[in-house]
UniProtKB/TrEMBL annotation:
Coiled coil ranges: none
Pfam families assigned to the protein according to its UniProt record, in alphabetical order: Lactamase_B
Matching CDD domains: metallo-hydrolase-like_MBL-fold
Listed cofactors: Zn(2+)
InterPro entries: MBL_Glyoxalase_II, Metallo-B-lactamas, RibonucZ/Hydroxyglut_hydro
PANTHER family: HYDROXYACYLGLUTATHIONE HYDROLASE GLOC
Lineage: Bacteria, Bacillati, Actinomycetota, Actinomycetes, Streptosporangiales
Gene Ontology MF terms: hydrolase activity; metal ion binding
Protein name: Hydrolase
Gene3D superfamilies: Ribonuclease Z/Hydroxyacylglutathione hydrolase-like
Length: 231
């Protein structure tokens, strides 16, 4: 398994490239602001051919480069239908002050090929098996993507802005809701094994076990959860 990541743009949003191995097809997760140059370097270094772009949610810092990447590589973008409108109008997901600060003549369009994600769906792309979990709360259409355990790696979750090392995504922007994100954490994170690797939208990698033990938001979410597999 090959997973390469880098922080993109002024938002330092983690963009990930995932493939079974070097020299094979791959998927791209969350190509954000100014991601194209570094992304091209990663693809060239590992001799990878993209077949899809996956978007954890529609906030600008995660989808800024989706259309150019899809257009240049002639690949589809996958996003939850609740956030699809943000591909062409990302200002709907931002505060008024942020919209006024960021949008100086910038325009965004959907890629030519957009496909919609569903909760529990399993995507078979680039020789990978990715499970989609709908995790609203940060935005209405937030999702995570999970890779199953293999002999060489534990379970892996690309958590977007649902879960960070020591924190969670903000809920004060349009489409955000704090009780909803707690329920998403309880339903989609707490049942996972402790050694599940969490690759978040910002900041360093962590594990479910570390966050279960130290993250105050997961502790707050725990009453919403059923039995867990990680303890």
């Amino acid at each position: 398994m090959l997973i390469a990541g880098f922080p993109a743009g002024s938002f330092q949003t983690n963009c990930y490239v995932v493939a079974p191995a070097a020299g094979e097809e791959c998927v791209i997760v969350d190509p954000g602001q100014n991601a194209v140059g570094d992304l091209d370097d990663v693809l060239r270094e590992h001799r990878l051919k993209p077949v899809a772009v996956l978007v954890t949610h529609g906030h600008l810092d995660h989808m800024w480069s989706v259309a150019p990447v899809c257009g240049a590589r002639d690949v589809p973008a996958w996003i939850h239908p609740e956030d699809r409108e943000l591909l062409s109008d990302p200002g709907k997901g931002l505060s008024l002050a942020t919209r006024q600060q960021l949008f100086g003549g910038l325009t965004f369009t959907e890629p030519d090929d957009v496909r919609e994600l569903a909760d529990g769906e399993v995507l078979h792309l680039a020789g990978l098996e990715l499970t989609v979990d709908h995790t609203p709360g940060h935005t209405r259409g937030s999702v995570t993507f999970r890779l199953p355990r293999t002999d060489e790696i534990p379970d892996v979750m690309f958590s977007g802005d649902l879960l960070f090392a020591g924190s969670i995504g903000r809920t004060d922007l349009p489409g955000g809701d704090y009780p909803t994100i707690l329920r998403s954490l309880a339903a989609k994170c707490l049942p996972l094994p402790d050694d599940t690797a969490v690759l978040p939208g910002h900041g360093p990698q962590t594990t479910i076990g570390t966050e279960r033990a130290t993250n105050p938001y997961l502790a707050e979410a725990a009453p919403f959860a059923g039995p867990t597999r990680g303890i």
